[in-house]
TrEMBL record:
Record-linked Pfam families: ADH_N, ADH_zinc_N
Descriptive protein name: NADPH2:quinone reductase
Coiled-coil region: none
Organism of provenance: Hyphomicrobium facile
InterPro entries given in the database record: ADH-like_C (IPR013149), ADH-like_N (IPR013154), ER (IPR020843), GroES-like_sf (IPR011032), NAD(P)-bd_dom_sf (IPR036291), QOR-like (IPR047618)
GO cellular component labels: cytosol
Amino acid sequence: MPFAVRVHATGGPEALVYEDVPVADPSPGEVLLRQRAIGVNFIDVYHRNGLYKLESLPAIIGSEGAGDVIAVGPGVSRFKVGDRAAYAGSIGGYAEVRAVRAERLVKLPDGIDYDTAAAMLLQGMTVRYLLRETYRVGPETTMLLHAAAGGVGLIACQWAHALGATIIGTVSSDEKAELAMENGCTYTINTKRDDFVSGVREYTNGNGCDVVYDSVGKDTFPQSLDCLKPRGLWVSFGNSSGPVPPFPLTALKGSLFATRPTLLAYTATPRDLEDNAAELFQMVLSKQIRITINHRYPLSRAADAHRDLEARRTTGSIILIP
């Protein structure tokens, strides 16, 4: 019987239980995937601790992985046994074997291995919609990117650099500042030592940024709004420090815009998913983006991965190996 990591009651990393879990044959429209690598993302923490409510318990968390198709359900024509495939946004990933809706899977091109796919698909497609759709970044763009040395951050630095943007990145250490700069960040601000609002004003000569990409949440709000130009856009796409508290619309002074995008909204149809993934794969295969996997854990040590992620002891992407 294959193993999986389940949450029986929401809580800290100790809530992750490694155990035997039976796997049924794939239902109509599903594919059974033997996973080779599993991505770890902050949304997994939110599911584990109850910030994002799970449909029922016990539950297998994890929203990203890559592996081999070992069975297909009735009605599936896009995949066959032996295909290499990956997914992002389908909860149930912390498992050796799992079923996935075929419409939520993408085929892996030659040149993309399992580890890279599991480390990049959710984070990379997030970066793609943030930079290409939520706000269309270009050479004229000045942006503030919080957590610039994280998994999303390093991909975003490289992609925004390729687009010609000026990138101001926040980090929590000098080592992370160096890493962000190596990946294309223009300027960095160590928030353990310096005030990022003052830093943004200095770097922009008081003009502010066109867009702020904020995955931190509580600890960077409402200061992120003070970093924007009039009519600038604040993009809140995560809450690693806790959720943003309710705020009045009058906080959006200067005719600011605010949005809370999600990957599922930007990949809602199979065509959207394929287009998003295809552009990401092209950026990686052309070596404009390098995926940095600095942390690998056995699936049985998922709790350790969560502890390190929450303690900000990680940089780049994190994967679990079944």
